[in-house]
Each structure stands twice: as structure tokens, then as C-alpha cells.
Amino acid sequence: MRRKIAILGATGSIGSSTLDLVERSPDRFEVVAVTAASNSDALADIARRTGARLAVVADEAHFDNLRTRLAGTDCRAAAGETALAEAASGEAELVIAAIVGCAGLQPVMAAVESGKTIGLANKEALVTAGALMTDAAAANGATILPVDSEHNAIFQCLAGSRRDDVSRIVLTASGGPFRTAAASDLEAMTPAQAVAHPNWAMGPKISTDSATLMNKGLELIEAHYLFGLPSERIDIVVHPQSVIHSMVEFVDGSVLAQLGSPDMRIPIAYVLGWPERLATPAQRLDFKSVGRLDFEEPDTQRFPALRLSREALEQGGSAPAVLNAANEVAVASFLAGEIRFTDITRIVEDALAQASYLPPQSIAEVLDIDRETRLNVQSSMKAVCH
Ligand code: NAD
Ligand code: MG
């Protein structure tokens, strides 16, 4: 029996890597549903290639083109929020959640509520609604498997261990493209410089997050919800080679690490094959050419996102959702050339001052916090920039 898979965000970086693996093992996987934001041409090509039965474009303006492009196939075209949720909760057994940003929250929740196994790349969904998500997963028998390379590494290191035997986890960070940049040079860094990641090829939002180190901050919050550890038992270390993807320290002092070349197909394959392993064409590690593994203390002066994320996690309430929303708006403005690189974390810090200690009780409340924060941030950016 082939495993039925839905790929949310099929046109993106993680979506493409997933398709690459799935198409190499046609005997093991059957793609049943694929989604994209607006690129209906690319989505229709993917649906035709994979034989998916449902293709959903989030932006309804692109529905007609999608339907035209799928004419004569067995694939149904659909658009909008309800259809996205349908792709996540329909016939798939495994849902790869690779939408970027808070836009993925409702589809991920739809998958969780229908008890699916979810390969979660969309970290923003766990950051903004972590407790709601993990509670709903427990209540509905859903399984969340981490695609994010650090969390996937930890998940691999935890296999066969008792959670009580874990003393801490250590997230590794590459340090991003500005790891060695002087503080005074950061302000002038351009979007092109920010998205040129030294080790990983990724979508523009997460690449910018890697440059501010907000990505590691979001991953700290993600790790808290995935593994149930408090902030003080989750450490972050800069490891520029990106060979160790993260580590787990146990009560006896043993440390397990997962290593591999920086290729997202490795963690995605672990999720696709779990509990078995799937062969991948990823480059093998050659230790003689790796040569050395370096570790550094992260610099929270130049990269305040790390401090802000830890504060948001420790404050709880609406803070993680506010942090995420402010960051999404600021990153989009930075990529559009409207604000400077160092404005991103300044905007997030200002927004966090408005966060409340009351945790959201529902996805609707999370979306309210998200919407309100975006509006506040947009109006304060207008006031500053014009
Ligand atoms: P990407 O920008 O390359 O792709 C995003 C996908 O989401 C696209 O298919 C796009 O069409 C879809 N999408 C965007 N906005 C949408 C909306 N409003 N509604 C519905 N669909 C929408 O991004 P990516 O780099 O593949 O990242 C996807 C997620 O995976 C992010 O949460 C990111 O943090 C996480 N992640 C990515 C990597 C990586 O290597 N790229 C690694 C770890 C985690
Ligand atoms: Mg990561």
C-alpha cells in the first residue's frame, strides 16, 4: 500500500524537496493533494506530474487559471481557506505542512484535528499556537513530526530514550550570513545580502530570519512545544559549519548529536519514512574535508532576536504570537526595501511591549492577535518611515 501524502506549500523550497523525494519512490508514496499561495501554473504542473486529486490555490484570484490548466485531468481545482483545510484533512495519511508563516496555522490545525501524521516545517504555526496545537494533537491522536532540521535532529537523538533522562537540548545555529559582520555594518545590509545564506538554500522569509537569528529564536519556541522542555533547558550554540544539526544531553552526561550535509531532504526523508529510513541522494559527509567543527556563543547584542524570542517564550500569553506577527510584517517590509535590516528586530521589540499575559484560548484568538499586531506594526512603520 502506498502512503497517501498531502503537500501544503508544494511550490516552495520544502515543498520541492519533498516532491523530489516522493517522486524518487513512486512505489511508496502517492501524492493526493497539493497547495500553493498563488502560483497556479507551477501548482498545476505539480498536480499533473504527481497525479494529485486535489490542487488548492490559496488566493481565489488564481482559481480560474488553475482550473483551466487542470482541465482534462482527474485533479479537482479549488481555492480559498476552506479548500486549504480540506487538503490538510482529506484522504492523506501524512500531511507535509510547508506553508510559510502564520498563513499555515489553520491548515495545520485542520490536519491536527483530523488526527493526521503531520510533517511540520511551518514552525510559525507552533510558535503562534504551540499549546493549542499540542493539546489538540493529544486529543485527536495526531502525530507531529518535525521537519525543521534542528528539531528533526533532536527527534532522531531522542529515539529509544525516556524523556525523563534528557537534561537539556542544544540547538545549533549557523550564525547566518552576518555572523562575522561588525555591528556598525548591519544597518546597511541589503535583502540580497541577507538571503544569501552560507550553508542552506531556503525561501526568502526564513533566509532573512536566519540573518537576524530570529529563525533560531522561533526554533527555540518551536522546540519548547515539540519536546516539552522549559526555556532554561534549551541552549543555543553557533556552529558555523552546519554539520551538527542539534544535540541532546542526557542525565548521565552523554551527548547525542545528529550530523549530515546541509540538505533538507535528509530531515524530510526521516519524516517521510518514519519509523523506517528512506534512502536519499544527499551528499555524504566527508569528515576529512569537513576538517573541524567550531562552536561559539551567540551574540545577542548584534542579534537581539535571540533575546526577544527567549523573553517571549518565558512571558508566554500572547507574546510568541505577537513576536511572530511583528517579525512577519517587518521581514516583508525589509524584503520590499522599505526598512533597514536592523529595523526588523527594533519593530519586533516595540510590538512585544503590547503583548498580554493571557494565553489565546482558540485559533480564532491567535488569528485576532496576529491581525491586530500586523495593523499596529504597519501603522507605526508608516509613522516612522514617512
Ligand atoms: P517558500 O517561500 O519557499 O515556500 C512557501 C510555500 O508556502 C509556497 O508553496 C507558497 O506558495 C506557500 N504559501 C505562502 N504564503 C501562503 C499563504 N498565504 N497561503 C497559502 N500558502 C502560502 O518557504 P520555505 O523556505 O519552503 O519554508 C516553508 C516553511 O518551512 C517555513 O515555515 C519555514 O520556516 C520552514 N522551514 C524551511 C526550511 C528550508 O530549508 N526552506 C527549513 C526549515 C524550516
Ligand atoms: Mg531550522
Question: Would you kindly provide a written description of the structure presented here, covering whatever features stand out?
Answer:
The protein has 386 residues and is of the alpha/beta class. It folds into two domains: 3-146, Rossmann fold; 151-261 and 298-385, RNA polymerase sigma factor, region 2, helix turn helix motif (Rna Polymerase Sigma Factor, Chain: A, Orthogonal Bundle), CATH 1.10.1740.10. 47% of the residues lie in helices and 15% in strands. It has 17 helices and eleven strands. It has helices spanning 13-24, 40-50, 63-69, 81-89, 105-113, 123-140, 149-158, 183-186, 191-194, 204-212, 214-227, 265-273, 287-290, 305-315, 319-335, 343-352, 363-385; strands spanning 3-8, 29-36, 54-57, 76-79, 94-97, 117-120, 143-146, 166-173, 234-238, 244-250, 255-259. The strands form two sheets. The protein has a seven-stranded parallel beta sheet with strand order 4-3-2-1-5-6-7, with helices on both faces. A four-stranded mixed beta sheet has the order 9-8-10-11, with helices on one face. Strand 3, helix 3 and strand 4 form a beta-alpha-beta unit. Helix 4 packs parallel to helix 5 and helix 15 packs across helix 17 (363-385). The radius of gyration is 20 Å and the shape is globular. The termini are far apart. 48% of the residues are buried. The model has no long low-confidence stretch (mean pLDDT 97). Nicotinamide-adenine-dinucleotide (NAD) binds at residues 9-15, 36-37, 39, 58, 98-100, 103, 121-124, 148, 200, 202-203, 205-206, 264.
